[in-house]
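Appendix B. Raw example, untouched.
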Amino acid sequence: MTRDHNPLIEYHSSPRVWVAEDDEELREILGEFLRQSGREIRLFGNGQEALEAVKKDSFDILVTDLMMPGADGIQILREAKKIHPECIVIIMTGYASLDTAIQAIRGGAYDYIQKPFKFEEFGIVIRNASEKITLTRENRLLLQQWKNAMEEVSQLRESWENHLENMMSLWRRIWRDKENPEIELILNQINPGPLDLDSKKKKAEREDIGQIEKLIDLLHSLA
């Protein structure tokens, strides 16, 4: 090798990357390489450690060796995708074969890296995975903002419909008491001419608020 992130993904500034690799030297080198980008890193020395962590904690990207003691990469992949459906799992192996590649992809692996690999290659895979995680977060945030906006619109519509119904109720009372001289006087001030109930309904939202308040006060006094 040459050197040159049913729980949903939580929102973090940088994807959380786990590495499961039984080769201690390679594990530490990968950890150092990933930390340089400011990512939150967690390292595991065997498959069982990684498997237990997957069951307990959340993460964004998991880079796992295919062949490890305790649990292999395919076992970890399956468990990770079952518990964290939106996570990204990248398989590393020195035992490259078409069968294991197909098995990993069918199991939901994001990518498949054959050892030995260059850090440039590894970095590109991690960068692409991180961008996918970021896009997933942004899409979820936009979807939640859209849902919140729709709820606000629904609430505003309900509030306006209630207001309109109150206005219609008020006009019905006015219609019943239209012979009252005081009400007739105020109505003439609002819209001089014959009282047209249908017309008033259409123009209710544009009526002068001050005059409506006078009507409400008057109706209260007559109740």
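End of appendix B.
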